[in-house]
## 1
Amino acid sequence: MKKIIAIAALSGLLVVSCGDDKKTDTTSAPTTSAGPVEFDLASVSADDAAKACAEGKTLATGKLTLATGDPAFPPYVIDDKPESGQGFESAIALAVAKSMGFEGAAISWVRTSFDTAAAGSDSNFDFNLQQFSINEDRLKVVSFSDPYYTSAQSVLGYADGPAAGVTKLSDLKKLKLGGAAGTTSLQFITDVIKPDTAPFAFNSNADAKTALDNKQIDAIITDLPTGLYISAVEIEGTKVFGQFAIDAGGAGDQWGLLFVKDNPLVECANLALKALTASGALAAITQQWMGDYNGAPTLGKD
């Protein structure tokens, strides 16, 4: 998925989770506030296997070049300063780097566009993070790491609307729900939530707003990154009330670190991600920046 707020500056198009992205097994509103401090990069140690793997495989010997967008936006990078470690992808990048044995002055950042990087046209980085969804078309021209994030389903509506008190999945059964036509979100409503009223399928955010205004629906179910975009840009006065754990069903896009095609460093990054998953660091980063920072708590399944 492209940068949520960057897209807003360019168009008013509906951003939805595409059902054709490659799925790989994995464990599961601009602002200058840095959010609650939960993850500490100092807690990450170099992983012996990842460090040994990375030796001699970077663009510059003993250095690691990371890439992000120009500019980069919250919650992925705070204040457009990826080197700070503040923001979801900034924290992920520095944690992966440290796990591979790179930190401080050994790390440098460059900027690329989303489109040229995804098309395999850029090669001035070791890896790139810009919410790149892993899919078959992209895999023809670039390589990806294992997923570092799988988008969860979320619920949003007007801040003072009927969904404001939702704390668990069963709270949604009595509500009138809507989802974008042809998405995993609409299927999540039907197969997992199973509401008392048949869901409303909308084709645009304008349709969704009209349905909310006319009380045809009480809330929208969508993947979290799209929900944040809609709330921040598309439908004023709405709020993401929470997100569902991946094991609740209806997982959306998976994001991976993007590499030049067939880059041998992919294996090393995967070892680093495996170590970060095992230590709990990846989960802590995700909770801080894709949960607490956005005010989108994980809702109970029952």
Note: The two ends are 30 Å apart (CA to CA).
## 2
Amino acid sequence: MRYGSPLIALALLTGCGGGEEAGNNSATADAPAVTLMNEEAAEADNAALAPLPEPAADMTAPDAALPGIDAPPLAPRAQPTATPTPEAGRADAARVVRAYYARITRGDYAAARAMWDDDGEASGLTPADYAKRFDRFAEFRAEIGTPGRIDAGAGQRYVEVPVTVTARMKESGEVVERRGIVTLHRTGDIEGATPAQRRWRIASAEILPKPPAAPAAEVPPTAAPAADAIVTARYACEGGVRLIARFDNAKGEVTLRRGYRVVGTLRQQPVGSGIAYKGEDGLELRGKGDAATVTLPGGAPFACEAR
């Protein structure tokens, strides 16, 4: 009995196999059984499946009778909405005019000129001429009145702001007073307009000397001044050009200005209907109603509209 049976030794060797394999075999024994099917069986199994029901048209309110549905559906997430920026109005226009004359008062003429349309070109003056125009005053003060209504058309906005200017000349010390209208322009809040185009800019400034008050004895009580003796029209033209036309019906002439620069004086011409005025070097103004055509010296006619 010194040596054991060969069968017993073989059993012992089988029982003492590697640990890893034993563990793997144990894990395999614990896993659920997986049944593999061939292609024919898979097709037959798919064919046996009942078709899925079509989704209901209203998916916002699930059926409360379905198992697991015990709460109302979640409300749809609110989408953020952009708050529209209000358009620049009459108060903004008054602030622009006030800032404009504040720059002139402190001698910042370049900054004041830059507040005009077309980067200052609408003033009708070069930067040097613009500075000379205001540098002759020792004192300068402007009172800003209440803006008029905003005129809107073709995506553009216009507003007139009354201004009274009091200034003292450097050389003579004379105090002069002028009053008139500053017209501002901007593009409406339309698609494609830049923020700079939506801001108020100065389109024209008609500041005329204040007429002296006549003595009462020189004006008969029954006399009334001719209401239409002087008529002023402001034209918005092609290419962003702004013109001021001052019609003197008593003299039969009109003076055209662009900003502060006088373009020329034109004489009235006989015409069947509308208006016609001619000046030197081909300067011409024709129109009917609010529509007009202006021809500058050496240039082609361009369309304008009275504002």
Note: The CA atoms of residues 27 and 33 lie 12 Å apart.
## 3
Amino acid sequence: MARNAHYALIQFLSKRATDAAVSGKALLEIEEQLELKRTPLRIECYDISNISGTSVVASMVVFEDGMAKKSEYRRFIIDTKEATDDTRAMHQVITRRMKRLLNDRAVDESDVAAIGGKLSKFSYPPQLIVVDGGAPQVAAAQRALDELGVTDVALCGLAKRLEEVWRPGESDPLILPRTSEGMYLLQRIRDEAHRFAITFHRSRRSKVMLESILDEIPQMGQARRAALLEQFGSVAALRKATLQQIAMTPGIGEKIAEVIFEYLQKSSQSQGTEIVNTQTGEITSASK
């Protein structure tokens, strides 16, 4: 019974999310509640994910007419030399995105068309930017817009704990009704950005961890490291491989494969488990 009810709920939410009339109502509610100058037909949402402040990444998801446009999702690797926390990371990613927009605006579209080209997907401006977070993240994003002179893009933040909507310069958040289609759409967009950021973070972390482990294994030259990265891509995949599968990797052979296999067996004994904070996107390790 519970299983059938859960399935019915999934069907309902899926239908609701793809219903054009509902999406249109949601966009009009967002426009009215946030007092926007125009309907936000294109919304971009940004989220930051990190491992205890290191290996920081950001995601950008795009919704047009209230629907996800996955072909225009983007991922950013944050330069942690400049961005040491979430707010600086948010400032950096918004700056990078808006610089691309401004650069594309300077290009004559007719000149591009004349040579058979087309503008990049970054050339389409959002009517609304949503950041995952509250007042600090919104202030950081607004500072990036101000520094670049971008005045025609609206901004807000959606804080997870109480689902408050924060606007630039406001001392108090805006509380949208929980039954509001506009709130439901903002939550969907924010949650999608969060999911996309964590997925990217995990894949990047796997590659970084594999590179780190290969650095510690004897007789691992650049060519062998590159071959193993190409063949397996992550620590988990390499650990699951048999001795024969490792040996079949170009440039490895049985002797080196034995060295790698033995090292992985020893290191797996002290391997920790991964904990993902679904509220912040931070990934930490805990001992088994």
Note: Residues 181-216 form the longest helix (36 residues).
